[in-house]
Amino acid sequence: MSLASVVPSVRRVSPVFARPTVSSCRWACMRHFPLGVRHFTRSGARRLPVVASAAGDSAVGDAFVTEGSTNVKFPRELTVPGYTGSLVILGTGYRDKFFVKEYAAAFYMDYSLSIDTEQWKQKIGMESFDSNSVFDAIFKAQVVKSLSINLVRDVDGKTFVNALNDVIARQIKEPNVEEESSLSTFQNIFLGRNLKQGTSIYLTWLEPSRMLISISENQDPCQVDAEIKSATVNYALYNGFFGNSPVSPSLRSSTSKLLEALLMK
């Protein structure tokens, strides 16, 4: 069994900040929702990891995984704007506040069968599984990952981004000039937006100092809406989801369980 490889040279394309044509969006949608997932059996086909979480996730055929608490369906494989490779789901969960569910979330990573688990463990220097060190190593590794957030209720953009800014502020108390610029970019992309139920936000971390943000009214991301160029801001944002005090404990738990199963076998 193997895990996501640490890709030495990232396969990506330059972000496109203009809305593509209708035909290109349809093509992206076809790639985003594969009719048949390319998973393998012993005959040599690719097999995707099976996602199971504390939130009670269930598989929907081969192409989707349902987050059990919100019933949001996430594609098992994902293609996002700004990156040509296919990302594979490794966990799902949800975020609630005062017992009201706000969004479902899924974590994706570039998954390859070319590097086995022994090579992966050597890469991150791991002898036994520890979720904190594994997440930290994944965030610092040159491997593409993406957070997919799907709103389960209407919320204004200011409320949404302020909640994420609070997450970042745990790590960055006094931002420097570069961090201030990135935080401003991050905030401006959401201000003035009315984010409806079903809206999807994708936070795709290509490399330490490059995170692409895509906002879609459905699960069909067709463009890059903003780019965050601060490694510390990007790290702080992901740490808010997978650090010691995650905003979605169910997402962290789900992802941790699958990573442990993959790494320890």
TrEMBL record:
<feature type="domain" description="Chalcone isomerase">
    <location>
        <begin position="71"/>
        <end position="261"/>
    </location>
</feature>
<dbReference type="GO" id="GO:0009570">
    <property type="term" value="C:chloroplast stroma"/>
</dbReference>
<dbReference type="GO" id="GO:0016872">
    <property type="term" value="F:intramolecular lyase activity"/>
</dbReference>
<dbReference type="GO" id="GO:0006631">
    <property type="term" value="P:fatty acid metabolic process"/>
</dbReference>
<dbReference type="InterPro" id="IPR016088">
    <property type="entry name" value="Chalcone_isomerase_3-sand"/>
</dbReference>
<dbReference type="GO" id="GO:0005504">
    <property type="term" value="F:fatty acid binding"/>
</dbReference>
<dbReference type="InterPro" id="IPR036298">
    <property type="entry name" value="Chalcone_isomerase_sf"/>
</dbReference>
<dbReference type="Pfam" id="PF02431">
    <property type="entry name" value="Chalcone"/>
</dbReference>
<dbReference type="InterPro" id="IPR016087">
    <property type="entry name" value="Chalcone_isomerase"/>
</dbReference>
<comment type="similarity">
    <text>Belongs to the chalcone isomerase family.</text>
</comment>
<dbReference type="InterPro" id="IPR016089">
    <property type="entry name" value="Chalcone_isomerase_bundle_sf"/>
</dbReference>
<protein>
    <recommendedName>
        <fullName>Chalcone-flavonone isomerase family protein</fullName>
    </recommendedName>
</protein>
